[in-house]
Each structure stands twice: as C-alpha cells, then as structure tokens.
Design a protein that fits this description.
With about 425 residues, the chain is mainly α. The protein has 16 helices and no strands. The protein is globular and about 60 Å long.
Length: about 425
Amino acid sequence: MQIVPAIASQMIVLLYNLADTYFVGLLNEPSQTAAVTIGYSPFLLLTAISNLFGVGGASAVARALGRKQGEEAKQISSVSFWYGLFCACFFSVFFFIFRGRILTLCGAQDEVFRIAENYTFWVVVVGGPATVLNTLLANLIRAEGSAGTASFGVSFGGILNMILDPFFVLPGFLGFGAAGAGVATAVSNYAAAAYFLIGLIRRRKTSAVRISPRDLRYTGKHMKDILAVGFPSAVQYALTVLAIAAQARFVSNYATEAVAGLGIIKKLDQLPLYFSIGVANGLLPLLAYNYASGNHARRQKAFRLGCAVSLSFSVFCLVIYELFAPQLAGLFIDNELTVRYSAVFLRIMVTAMPMMSVCYPMIIQFQAMGKAKESLVCSVLRKGLLDIPLLYLLDSLLPLYGCMWVQPIVDTISLIVACALYFRMKRQGRGADL
C-alpha cells in the first residue's frame, strides 16, 4: 500500500533526527544539546517552505493525473520545484543576515547562542536549499505513484546522516560537537537531493514529474492551485516554529538542563508524530487521485485505514513512553537533572499523540480535496492561535511544567474542530459522497 513506503521514509527521517540528538548527547554537555534544541525552530521553517510547494504541488499533480491530464501534471511539478528552490535560497540568505536576532528570539543565551549559531549555519544557511528540495521532490515523486522511489531517496539521506554523525560530532573523530551534526545533516540532504534529481533526469521521458525552467511560463495558470493547498500546510509549520520557539524561550528562563530536556523529549515524541506524518503523506496522492476521479468509496476506505493505523501506533507509543520515560531519556544523555526534566516533560506531552494522530490525516484529507479554507482553519488552530496565549496562562499557573500541557490541550481542540468541519461538509454534500 502507498502509505507503507511513506511511513518507512518518515521513520528514517526520525532516526537521523534522533541520531543528531543521541551523538550530541554523548558529549554529556547540556549546552550542546540545548543548542540543537534552539536550532530546531529555524530548521523547521525549511519544512514550511518545502510543504508550501511540495504538499501543494503533490496534491495538484495527483488531481491532474486523476483527471488524465499528464501534461498539466508536468507543468505543475516544474513550477513547484523552481519556486521551492528560489524560496529556500532566499530564506537561507535571510537567516544568515538576521541569525543573531532570530536565535535570541528562539531562546539562545550565552554559550548556547554560540553553539546554536554554528549548528544553524550548516543546517539552515548551507544545507537549507537541499533540505527543501529533498522533501519537495519526495512529495512530487510520491504523487505520481512512485512511493518506493520517494521512500528510498529520503531513507538514503537519513541513513547517510546517521553514518556521518559520529565522525563529525564525537571527540574521538573530528570532534565538531553540535556543529558537526549540522554538517552531517547538510551533506546527507545534498546527497538525497542529488539522487532525486539524477533519477528524474534519467526518467524524464516516462515520469509525470518534470523540472524544466521553461514551464515557469505556466506559473499564472497553476500557482493558485498549488498555494491553495500548500499554504495551510506551510502556515501550520511556520506557526509550529513560533510555538516551539516560544516554548523553548519560556523553558530557557529556568535552567539549561530543562532546555536540554525539552530537546530530548521533542525528539522522542517525534516517533508517533513522524509516523502519523508518514501515514498522511502516503494518503495524500491516494485521496487526491480518487477524489478527482470520483472514486469516493476507495477514498473513504483509504482514509479510514490510515486513521486506524496512525491511531493504533500512537496509543502504543503513549503506553511505552508513560512506562519507561526516564529510561528512554537516559539513552540520550548521562545527566541526572536533564533526565529528570525529560521524563516529566515526556509523560505530559505524549498525551497529545492520539489526538494528533487523527488530526493530521483529517487535515491531509481537506488538502487532497482542495478544501483550502477547512485545511487552513485546522492548521492555524492546531499551531499558532492557541499555543502562545496558553503558554502564558499555564506557565503562570504551573511554572515550567504548565508549558508542556499546551500541546495536549491544543490537539484535543483541533481534532474536535476538524471533525466538526468534516461532518458539516458531509451534511452540506460538498464533494459528493463525502
């Protein structure tokens, strides 16, 4: 099934994110782990860019193929590719110029600031364009039905990153610390992007994905369709950056070990998160193609199966994390105070996972159907509208630990709203046989 390779590729992405934290954690320096935590926010903005054109482009490509419009699918993929590359380069330059202010806003202080600056130079400034192209091309290739090819490319980059991490990070080798993790990430993403580009050039006569700059003359024809679906996804990730940065800034008011602990659990709770994203990414072309071709029974079946798989895995993770939180945190750093913070944070935040595991497929279904308004409402609600006000409120009521309760509350509200929007669409009969 289409979702299996997508899940597999997301698990590899998760593993190399965990590898960064794991090998940096072996240094037993909370400031190094805290710097990677701070650097995660601007790095995540690259995902917002890739989703703007990758998710939007993939949905448009799949719907064009569902309508048997192969040439339009090629035009859409070219427009998505070139605008995604341009925006990635622009953001890398922008971050390089204003990196000091951005990292300070994310909560970087004193020695953590210096380390975070070195780390983000590699992952955002140098490696930013490759990171965007890696995800963007994987989405476009998956949209034409080549889920295995997309999965292999993402997995190749992730495995290479895990191999390179110890050589760049640990003192027994090059000993660059957190900056070394950034170098490994940049190199691996360039390698994965090269794999995708070479593959497209070799399959240019048979692939529905094209990256010809000549297709930019069709920008006006397709950009609205791309942005209508991609914008809500990009907004969600952009607001996620604000929420994560705000949370890190709140936590930085307490102790460096608390910031390091937040970084560790942010990696651990990515297991059910990335699994659900993998399910959603695999569902997108299936839902979009079948919606455009009018096969609503198959679309509904795929959606229900995806939700069941995603929810089951998140509940499994919830049980394991609640039972073994200290042991799992101890895998990443040998610092008693950091582990103690991590265990409490993890047990609170993982309660959000069951709601999130259904909310992601719901948002993806709206995007696959081209329902931009519903998708945007859910995306903004899930990340941005409630997070920061709740951070102020809960941190004042329950200092430090109140920050961790924000996500469970927000995801519960978001799921309720997503379900309400879906059933309202169903009652109104929008998109036959909803």
